[in-house]
Predict the structure of Alpha-1,4 glucan phosphorylase.
Amino acid sequence: MNLKGQTKLPIPAPRQVDPEVLAHEIVERLTYRIGKNAAAAKPHDWLHAVILAIRDRVIDAWIISTQKTYEEEGRRVYYLSLEFLIGRLMRDAASNMEMLDDMQAALASLGVDIDIIAALEPDAALGNGGLGRLAACFMESMATVDVPAYGYGIRYVNGMFRQEISDGWQVELPENWLAHGNPWEFERREASYEIGFGGRVDPAEGEDAGPHQMRWRPAERVIATPYDTPIAGWRGKRVNTLRLWEAQPIDPILLDKFNAGDHLGALAESNRAESLTRVLYPADSSAAGQELRLRQEYFFSSASLQDIVRRHIQYFGSILTLPDKAAIQLNDTHPAVAVAELMRILLDDHGVDFAEAWDITRRTFSYTNHTLLPEALESWPVPLFERLLPRHMQIVYAINSKLLGEARKSGQFTDSAIGAISLIDEGGDRRVRMGNLAFAGSHSVNGVSALHTDLMKVTVFADLHKLYPTRINNKTNGVTFRRWLMQCNPGLTGLIREAIGDRFLDDPEALRDLDAFADDSGFQEKFVAVKRANKAALSDLLRKRVNARIDPAALFDIQIKRIHEYKRQLLNIVEAVSLYDQIRSHPEKDWVPRVKLFGGKAASSYHNAKLIIKLAGDVARAVNHDPAVQGLLKLQFVPNYNVSMAEVMIPAADLSEQISTAGMEASGTGNMKFAVNGALTIGTLDGANVEMRDHVGEDNIVIFGLTAQEVNDRRAQGYVPREVIGQSRELGQALDAIASGVFSPDDPDRYKGLVQGIYDHDWFMVAADFDSYSAAQRQVDALWLDQPLWAKKAIHNVARMGWFSSDRTIREYAADIWKITP
Ligand SMILES: *Cc1c(COP(=O)(O)O)cnc(C)c1O
């Protein structure tokens, strides 16, 4: 033991990795940890034993990573996110520990098929979509580029719902991902904290209590208990910790109630605590205005901050040096209440004066903005905030008075600009603006693509940006190539290694060397063969899952992402209806056989999104049964889109649909995954598509539609969709067919309202972009007919996407925001 209570353990000796040793280890785990012999073992038992064998090696590396003392490491990163969309971990961990091939051989020697047991691992879906997946990619990249980091979040019992399609409609079912236990996690009861809610605030007692020092007496308390999951980086160099909190009732109170005979009261209390971390809010790009959501946000922010501060003080004695050792990144505003919580800890628990507390807070936090959509900007009614967090309400007011004081003193703001800077929205019912709180409490505020960052400066944060002109910066998103190329597409990975060697495995930018093969017809053939095999695999899966017959020779045109009007699945479906009409009218033309695949979940309360899913199914039924377009056009909605489904669909795509209304998609990361797997993109100049065009070259991407500026101008001029529809025969026909019930004879009025919305206001500019989109699709058709040219462009996409690795993104965060040199 050293003085700080840390035991230096002997560093584990490296284990041997070969199939024979591994097979022995698996059988040993099966016998002694699961208690079965090989003959009696079920597939789930094998999976469990394999994970334990991989996990032991991850733990070896974890121990080495955490042996580096705090002093040696300098600053650590704490990534606070209400969502981590992890997916399966077995293949990821085995691959990063460089034991995947040996594991496969070991299992084969035991008569077990690795693919069969891998498919049994639950897909950990503790997130809705892109934001949560980004957090998962970042965890892996931080470990890979050697950034010491903790991820903090919530261990939801029920993560993202499982989507079934019944009669074409989305049905939401609970996904019990913990049903078979979770061998990756470790419960750490000794690191539990109390979290308070409600109650009252009294002035602090004692002679040296400062004027800002208060004592909060919460009326309600729950316990936050952490579960740690080790996250291994590439080649197992570093293993970081993902710490997820679970809410538990405080036992003594329960015991008292039980002893006093109030069994129902005790149960209610217990349920109330546990319900805190039961469900993930199924909302993407919409603010979930529920008390439980605010409770979740405070619960995990407070637990994480208590943990960070406890650890800091244990090592360094004083909270005043916190910013030198801790960089806390807020993934969107969901953890923004952490700004007020750190202030409370500094002011009330440590007696720091207000000015210094505010300085420490701002040097510690940084904030990532993920959306400009007004309906997605979080704010909480003041009465609710005050009732749940009375002390934090006072602190928000105190910060606000300082902030508005600074703004007024600068002399550059009108009253309405001061109103926009305020942490309190005074229009209508008074609300606490979490975006403004996060902005004010951070030294860095970043957007997630160049375009999104530029727009941030002139929209939501225009006035705050004027007050603090150096705070906003850009960090374009990325994805981890380990999962999104090497693991999900072993065929392509093998082909690339054959061509350019292994350097790209460690340096994604080295994919550039593949440019030299874009024109090589031998390489093109192999490239097309790999794509074809991936398409056949997807086709097989869809036959099993939804009984679809899909010809792998067709062009696979894929749009998979959350269903949202701004993402414009509707534009894609309307174009499909128009194409269907054109094929029937002109059967003599040389049509390209095309399969349009859709996938994605709709928020359960989002009526139009659910209707769009139904429409995709209705159009699919009509088109797929019409002999006139047999072999030329097919549509299929793929149920329950999640990380595991993405891993099969993306490597099989020829065409990637990234067609959001310009200015509305902050970055997108699906767009990046497709391109690095050799799909061509059809897309608008939105989010990271803009930078993708710059990297892959404008000849290798199909861009259409209004720019963000043009969307703005059109709206300002008074956009009249009815006129646009009047000028496009194809669009008018397609819309009218949908509205008149051609695709919904069982309920002819089903889509009247949806289509009427396009005629009346068309918020998402479907009509404005239709002709341009349709022309771009015909350009895609023409290109498909020249297969070598298509292959060449696809190869250029793979070669030039290296910059979109999340390793690059993390290095930028480390250098510019966290000031860490890994
Ligand atoms: C990458 C990913 C997303 C984000 O997709 P976008 O097209 O960027 O919206 C959402 N869900 C899953 C499962 C993903 O893997």
Residues 656 and 681 are 5 Å apart (CA to CA). The radius of gyration is 27 Å. The first strand starts at residue 76 and ends at 80.
